[in-house]
Amino acid sequence: MDITDTAQRITSGDRRALARAITLVESGRADHRAQAAELLGALPRERQALRIGLSGTPGVGKSTFIESFGMMLTGQGLRVAVLAVDPSSARSGGSILGDKTRMDRLARDPKAFIRPSPSQTHLGGVARRTREAVALCEAAGFDVVLIETVGVGQSETVVAQMADLFLLLLAPAGGDELQGVKRGIMEMADVILINKADGDLKATATRTCADYAGALRLMRKRPQDPAGFPKAMMVSALEDAGLNAAWATLQELADWRRENGFFDKTRATQAQYWFEQDVRAALLAQLDGAQARAEMARLGAEVAQGQTDPALAAQQMLATLGHKQG
Amino acid sequence: MDITDTAQRITSGDRRALARAITLVESGRADHRAQAAELLGALPRERQALRIGLSGTPGVGKSTFIESFGMMLTGQGLRVAVLAVDPSSARSGGSILGDKTRMDRLARDPKAFIRPSPSQTHLGGVARRTREAVALCEAAGFDVVLIETVGVGQSETVVAQMADLFLLLLAPAGGDELQGVKRGIMEMADVILINKADGDLKATATRTCADYAGALRLMRKRPQDPAGFPKAMMVSALEDAGLNAAWATLQELADWRRENGFFDKTRATQAQYWFEQDVRAALLAQLDGAQARAEMARLGAEVAQGQTDPALAAQQMLATLGHKQG
């Protein structure tokens, strides 16, 4: 791959070049990693998309929301990319965005770009590559990058580390269920959207929204929020209701953070986080090769059988890796 | 240090040799790590102490309990070592066992050995070294090794990874406070001891004990437990009440697990865990040197200022470390 040429094509909006570049950053091969890093380094750094993390458990209507919200944005002339961090794909090889038919209107929209979550062996790998796909989409001139995840395990934390704003999508529910949302996720949310505020569920949605608004008011004030944030709002992806208001709210928040330095500060912290993660991951990747795995298994079995101490076996493993003792 | 000689002295019960060896495993220096691993590998592997993890938040009377429980054990002719994993010492440099006067009777008992938590920069380091100190105490012929921790962050998980049995010490409390104990900790406990079952608190202790017994019955059955476990019991460290019963219960559980294979299986899993942790820690230790830190800081600042992509900076860092790209 010609790095300079590819960087140029991506910047000029060549979708095939973008797709190929994402495939490159998703690769686990050492030479691909080096190329990917070179490409990421060669991209122009002045373009800035609004990166929106979006979490919601299955059943809240996430696909419908992304499609309606995405169509509303492209309708305003904005270019929208949709990426995903899917911890289940890390296990099963499946993907929450694998089936583009879930959002077939948006998938056919020339102003939109949908990319499923890479199938990887661990969440850390999926996360890192999604972070890099976000950077590629940004360089490709997308105005909004939506990063979807499901409310499972650490995936929200990981998405929050690559998003400017974090949206939590919830379904209307009884008061008791309010406790079901993990406190950590609530603390991460910038805007909570109660979806399905339509038909029979509208009254429940209104109550749910008030409950969450109340819960948010009780939470500790964060420095990165203007008055009134985090906010709970109602939307109906099905009826296209509240989507413009939600977008206006997100923009209001992003503008305030830009003006008050929090936008750049968060990005700086995130970039450092990914840099450190990348270095650590590469150091630990020495254990991924077939030979290293076999030796880890052999020494691990010795240790498990009590034949040697874990610390001594570890020194032997390091010697095998050609690593200086210590 | 003469490794063979030191191993022999430890095995023959030389307390000064033991103390020096613990200091060695606590050291972060690369040559010390290599020596420590060699020493741990040279120890006889047939001795087996009962390793008891003990958690309890400040105020539950943990020191008084350890002293009374320890004195009861030494009174039966058993040799008792007390170690600690203290996450706060990782931050402050202080130590929960630093002040031996907290347990001055036990500290003066020739059958007991008390060692404060090492002051280290991160919990992982403290944990690993405590695991190694446990192995040293075991080789030194102690019958019981108590590993104390406070109910903060991940410290209990870490202690559970080096203990055969896990004791949770609680104070008498109203029913509402039952929720205060993190579910994860409850699931880790083999025996819950309600301390301070004396004087004015006796009635409350009885109620609290019944509450926890009920809560334990509602929890998912674990394969490593015989009928009736995990168990909640009352003790009074102040009045030396219930300590013999608690010890009998712990022995009953340990015996059952030994007979049913769970004892060895847990130790095997733990040993493998520490082996893998050791290898990872050593690979990441390449980032600990002064030069590496400076380079990480320099590249981190570039990344934070948006001058380069995290992935490219990571590749540059790896090149600095003399690590092959990828």
Automatic annotation (TrEMBL), chains A, B:
Organism expressing this protein natively: Pseudosulfitobacter pseudonitzschiae
Any one of the GO CC terms: cytoplasm
Lineage, top ranks: Bacteria, Pseudomonadati, Pseudomonadota, Alphaproteobacteria, Rhodobacterales
NCBIfam families, sorted: lao (TIGR00750), PRK09435.1 (NF006958)
Pfam family, one: MeaB
UniProt superkingdom: Bacteria
Keywords, comma-separated and alphabetical: Hydrolase
Top enzyme category: hydrolase
Membership in a protein family: Belongs to the SIMIBI class G3E GTPase family. ArgK/MeaB subfamily.
GO MF assignments: GTP binding; GTPase activity
InterPro entries named in the record: GTPase_ArgK, P-loop_NTPase
Annotated EC: 3.6.-.-
CDD domains recorded: MMAA-like
UniProt name for this protein: Putative GTPase
PANTHER family: METHYLMALONIC ACIDURIA TYPE A PROTEIN, MITOCHONDRIAL (PTHR23408:SF3), METHYLMALONYL-COA MUTASE (PTHR23408)
